[in-house]
Amino acid sequence: MGWACPLDRYPLKIVHLIDYFQPILGYQETFLAREQLRLGHDVTVVTSDRYAPFLNYTQTIQPLLGERVRPVGFKLEEGIPVWRLPASFEYRYRCWLRGLGQVLMTLRPDVVHAHNVTKLTTLQAVLLKPRLGYRLLVDDHSLLVAMDESWSGELFYKAFRWFLAPIFQRRADALIAVTDGIANTMREVYGFREIPVKVIELGVDTELFQPDPSAREAMRAELGLNPDDFMVIYTGKILPNKAPHWLVEALVHCPPQIKALLIGNGPSEYRQQIDQVIVQHDLARRVFFQPAVKQVELPRYYVAADAGCWPREGSTAMFEAASCGLPIVIVAGELAQRVRYGNGLEYQEGSVTDLARCLTYLAQNTGEAQRMGVRGRQLVEDHLSWEQINSQFMTAYQHSN
Question: Judging by DSSP bridges, how do beta strands 174-177 and 258-263 pair with one another?
Fold first, then answer.
């Protein structure tokens, strides 16, 4: 038997439902839960008994998180109430949670916020809704570049459009994308055309990520940088699909004062590939590596840099760098709105010479680069603090499409 969800009740009982939850890494679900808890709402994250099967997990993430499989049960993780359920089975970054219906009956949420459309936990939330009566919001973060374009992937999306999209559209109270490009994916690839898809972007902890001149000076000294060095930072997993090697290769076509700092872990064979480029082009004094660090440690590296660069795919790190006052260089196209304030540059994906052109422009026009950084900070303050992003979600929770 379900229960009525009073739209005007405060505080709300909110469940964030997600296959994998790693609060130490941040991500949208972590920051939303924290902001909602700060405002006095009753918030629980319901997830599986394991961390996400990140590519090359033992080399990229395990040094930071530990073993993938976690204890089942309820506990506070980074201050957030988390209920971990056993995964009945796991397939291609998706889990089916055993006992989810019973947990939701116990929690009696007003709202279930299911993260990512094609996850099995989201399907479970859709199927359970008629019986349990909560309001259901489904969001998605899937860039086209990350879509499965194999024949099996095409078959999956076709089946989703035909069989599941109609059910999702009848039962979801709100559909949310984090970029305009993802909204188009939800309409065209997933088949959500009968109800609107609203865009609510990813946010930033503006108190954690902010300019800090004294920290900048200390970290640049620690890295051994000269005053005229122009440091470009990349943060994230060091994996081929993220293409940080393009940043290293771009340095070959840049003035020698442009250097790169790559923060993250990756498989040894890919690191060897990057090292070969470094040796071949005598870049050893221009490329720095730092193993992955906790999110709270990232700001001191951002403020030491002069620009941020993500050669392929999107990342919340883009906005975190912008919040620290850095201009950002990103791939052209789907992510264009992330430099809509004139706070960065776009380059043609895969073209290391075009990427080098952008980096060289910033290094040779430091006044404009700094102004871009100021505009980036303004973008975050005006639109992308978690307080503002959560306010948009709270409106979506309480008002149907």
Answer: unpaired
Rounded-to-integer distance, Cα 280 and Cα 285, Å: 13
Q: Which of 240, 256, 239, 235 is nearest to 356 (CA)?
A: 256
Contact 65, 51 (CB under 8 A): yes
- Whole-angstrom distance, CA of residue 372 vs CA of residue 209: 16
Q: Which of 188, 233, 201, 186 is nearest to 341 (CA)?
A: 201
Q: How far apart are CA 390 and CA 249, in angstroms?
A: 39
Structural domains in the chain plus CATH codes: 13-203+385-398 (3.40.50.2000), 213-384 (3.40.50.2000)
Residues 330-359 as b/e (b if ≥16 CB within 10 A, e otherwise) read bbeebbeebbebebbbbbebeebebbbbbb
The Cα 257–Cα 5 span in angstroms is 59
pLDDT value, residue 88: 93
Predicted confidence at residue 366, as pLDDT, reads 96
Q: CB 166: neighbour CB atoms within 10 A?
A: 13
- According to DSSP, the residues that pair with 329 across neighbouring strands are 309, 345
274 backbone dihedrals φ, ψ, rounded to 5°: -65, -40
User: Are β-strands 307-310 and 287-290 bridged in parallel, bridged antiparallel, or unpaired?
Assistant: unpaired
Q: Average pLDDT per run of 10 along the chain, which is 401 residues long?
A: 52 96 89 95 97 82 88 95 96 93 97 96 97 96 62 85 95 94 92 93 93 96 95 95 96 98 93 96 96 92 97 88 97 80 94 98 98 96 93 90 63
pLDDT at site 153 = 74
Q: At what angle do helices 352-364 and 366-379 cross, to 10 degrees?
A: 100
Contact 21, 82 (CB under 8 A): yes
The pLDDT value given to residue 145 = 46
pLDDT, position 337:
78
User: What values do phi and psi take at 37, rounded to 5?
Assistant: -65, -40
The token pair at 311 is 């050669």
